[in-house]
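Handout, section 4.2: multi-component inputs.
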Amino acid sequence: MNIDNIRITFRKSLAGLLSLPLLVMLAGCHTDMWVQKKVDHPFARSTFFPDQSSARMPVSHTVAIGQVPYNDPYDTGMIPNATGVSVTETGVSRGRFVNAFPFKVTKQDLLRGQSQFNIYCSPCHGVLGDGNGMVAIRGFVHQKPANFHTERLIKSPVGRFFDVITNGYGIMYSYASSIPNPRDRWDIAAYIRVLQFSQQAPLSVVPKSRMKELTSSGSDASNPVVSGEPYTTSGGAQ
Amino acid sequence: MAQVFKPSANHLARLSLLAFVIIPGGLVGAGIAVSRSPWNTNVNVPLNQPVPFSHEHHVNELGIDCRYCHKTVENSPYAGMPSTHTCMSCHSQVWTNSPLLKPVRESYKTGVPLVWNRVTSLPDFVYFDHSIHVRKGIGCDVCHGQVNHMNITFKAKTFFMAWCLKCHRDPAKFIRPKNQVFNMEYRYPPDQSTLGKELMISYHVHKNGLTDCSVCHR
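Output:
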């Protein structure tokens, strides 16, 4: 056997050996089905539309099949004006707020309302609805989020709460896209009523079994006092 | 012709036999190590984002619920990303002049959404659905780690198939009460093995067939 031949064979096998890592690297490339020609997420970037969004807005002036007419009180919280829209001195009015829930409110609704309220409203309005949420404290210097325990809002028809969630109010943005289901908006409105009641409730409606929690000093942190209402644990007899 | 191989070459020959085992083995090992390293999987590597959004800040310090921003996580396959409208519901009032938030204000003005870099992304041939996991008591942190403590979001798990399967083979180890799904600080109790089995029954989780290929590749 010639020494040169051996050298060549050796070089060949060395080249083969060295190319092994290349093969390993190739296995890491994915030209196959990893990236397919489809919109794989509703919010994936699009190179087709000018706003680069693959999720599209409904075409304006169109109504989707099954979409209920927009003037049903269940969807607006309002009894529509005879003329549709009217302008009053307080602004544009589309009707009168309804003052009753369009369905029978169950405990299920209240629990749902509580969870939705805590997600979408409590950052600003606080878990008690007193307008002292965490974000309100850190920002919102010009206009504080509303306190739900003012006389005006206690006397407000429920339709107003539905309408504020749907269309926003003043500097508060609309939550219609966050809470698309009208039922959830009603549930939140119902829960706001619960909060309002809880902050005004006389001690006599507190169940006997829970009385201890209120009168023991340890529970002060979760006490209505925090909201600045005139009811304190010691003066609660009124 | 001179002798090419000296007797000592016998040892070399034997050694080289060994090398034939060690070198490919090492290469395969190195390949695996590389494919599992953060360089390939991006695990624990914070990504550059158009806005340095901090979950630590918004979730942990301000106490905002995941669903304020990831609205569809309970009802749809996709958790969803917050729209610019959602950021602006607060940032129209808070930090209105922050240079960090300039892209958010631009996006609100022009209607062109922010382009976030994906942190977790499965190949397109894998089907995944958030809603079923959320409804059957799998917490966000099981898959995404403690997002509430991330200043810049990173991937906490490999999201390899083997990782999905580890749970699909025996979900009882990971199932928690449904009202704890969004609790990022949840600690499993010592009696998880019995609690998990009970929850499996009450949430109707059937692990038979959960490892079938067609569950995730459809």
